[in-house]
Amino acid sequence: MRICAVIPAAGASRRFGLGDKLGQDLGGRALLLRTVELFTKRDEVSAIVVAGPADEDDFEQFRERYGAQLGFHGVRIVPGGRIERWETVKLALAAVPEDATHIAVHDAARPAASDELIDRIFEAAKVHDAVIPGLTVTATVKRVSEATVTAAEDDALASAILGDAGSEAVSARVVEATLPRDRLVLVQTPQVFAADLLRRAYAEIDPAGTTDDSSVVERLGEAVVVVEGDPRNIKVTTPEDLAMVRSLLGARPPAERPAHKRF
Question: Whole-model pTM?
Answer without folding.
Answer: 0.87
